[in-house]
Design a protein that fits this description.
The protein is mostly beta strands. It contains two helices and 36 strands. The longest helix is centred in the first third of the chain and has 12 residues.
Length: 417
């Protein structure tokens, strides 16, 4: 982490390593612009600026408007990226450069694009979109899956975050406007790209549709451009072609791609989604599935994860419970003794991988989709990521390991974060 000590005429950015830089704030300079200048001077990526209470500060605000003289900047770490529909992986290095692997035509080959100063990457089924530090977007992969964005390039500026369906992308701009492009069957507007929503505060993509939460709490879905009278609050969750969010009373509301309410569930803490629908982790640690079945466990669950047709959860005791179709990882009995002190769960379409506190990874489920990691050196792991058919892991020393069906695209030799 780095400290930022602010004054009306000077801002000092000091890293814990001892390196520092002093910056003179410019007139009407935003926090984003200040952060970018600090990154250039320090030659180090800074992920976010935090206030004195640890809250993330809006980057479109100015230092003077916030009235803060003491900020904290979090140094960016290497990050693995993929998606439930994707057949490729991307690694954002700490310096903002990117490496890719997996299915070459599905985004695993990124040699044709210049990928520097990247802060977020989203994946469709066969393309990637990368958000740069300057708010611009770069895309690659199959054009009909969103890999081509030149026709909306003029609108892709001041972008705050990205979302994806299996065949399209959407960009939320600082103004609250949303621009979408890609396949019209997967969430792009009928003309193939353009402005689809305004005054948006949250955005999420399912398989073939997007949902956006507007500032007044109303919901908009597209490509069929529907809105509802629901009043919800962020965050939004997506499940294949349904969505969920909390209302003002704290109930979880499920709605479809036409913004029609489908169900309400009280006392929900977290959500996961399989091909069969949502599963809700309640505040008491029990689980309610889409069909209303209640699952209780010896130790209440604190995390929930889903493959295509199975679920797994981490208990308060650090053990893992799994249920659903065994062919998709719904039975973890063969590795149950190894599933202790688990802190992270991720899933492909047919398998799960668990990261333990000691840095060891345990996998189960369909071996063809990553359920067998016996040949991989999965120790000293600090991060896990899943695509539709494979897993990737980042080691403490920065090395990357992948297993499962990589569609002929192994990680580049010597790849490090």
């Amino acid at each position: 982490m780095a400290e930022v000590l602010g004054a009306p005429t000077l801002v000092h950015v000091a890293l814990l390593s001892g390196r520092s830089v002093a910056l003179v704030p410019k007139a009407a300079e935003t926090l984003r612009e200040l952060r970018l200048r600090a990154e250039q001077e320090l030659q180090l990526g800074l992920d976010v600026l935090l206030g004195p209470e640890g809250q993330a500060l809006p980057e479109d605000s100015s230092l003077e408007a916030l009235g803060l003289g003491h900020l904290v900047a979090v140094a960016r770490q290497a990050r693995l990226c993929s998606g439930r529909c994707s057949q490729a992986f991307a690694l954002i290095r700490a310096d903002g450069s990117v490496a890719t692997w997996g299915l070459a035509k599905g985004g695993g080959d990124s040699h044709a694009v210049w990928l520097r100063q990247v802060r977020q990457i989203c994946a469709s089924a066969a393309a990637f979109a990368a958000l740069r530090q300057d708010g611009r977007v770069v895309t690659w992969g199959r054009p009909k899956y969103g890999g081509h964005s030149l026709h909306v390039w003029g609108q892709l500026h001041d972008v705050r975050r990205l979302a994806a369906t299996c065949g399209a992308f959407a960009a939320l701009r600082s103004s609250g406007q949303v621009v979408a492009w890609g396949s019209t069957r997967h969430g792009a507007p009928s003309r193939g790209g353009g402005l689809v929503a305004e005054e948006v505060v949250d955005l999420v993509g399912a398989n073939t549709a997007f949902a956006a939460l507007q500032a007044d709490g109303t919901v908009v879905t597209w490509p069929r451009q529907r809105s509802s009278g629901l009043r919800l609050r962020p965050p939004l969750w997506a499940c294949f072609d349904s969505f969920a969010a909390l209302d003002d009373r704290g109930e979880m509301v499920v709605f479809d791609s036409l913004a029609r309410e489908q169900a309400r569930v009280p006392d929900v803490a977290k959500v996961a989604a399989s091909a069969e629908g949502f599963c809700f982790l309640l505040k008491d640690g029990s689980v309610v599935s889409a069909d209303g079945e209640v699952h209780s466990f010896p130790s209440p669950l604190r995390e929930l994860c889903a493959s295509g047709y199975a679920f797994a959860g981490i208990g308060e005791d650090g053990a893992v419970r799994a249920w659903g179709d065994p062919a998709f990882g719904g039975d973890c009995s063969a590795v149950q003794e190894q599933l202790k002190d688990v802190q992270v769960l991720v899933a492909t379409d047919g398998a799960f991988a668990a990261l333990r506190c000691d840095g060891v990874v345990v996998a189960w489920g369909d071996a063809a989709k990553g359920g067998d990691c016996g040949g991989a050196q999965l120790t000293d792991i600090c991060q896990l990521c899943a695509s539709s058919l494979a897993f990737a892991a980042l080691r403490d020393d920065g090395r990357v390991i992948s297993w499962g069906n990589l569609r002929g695209g192994e990680p580049p030799a010597g790849l490090r974060g």
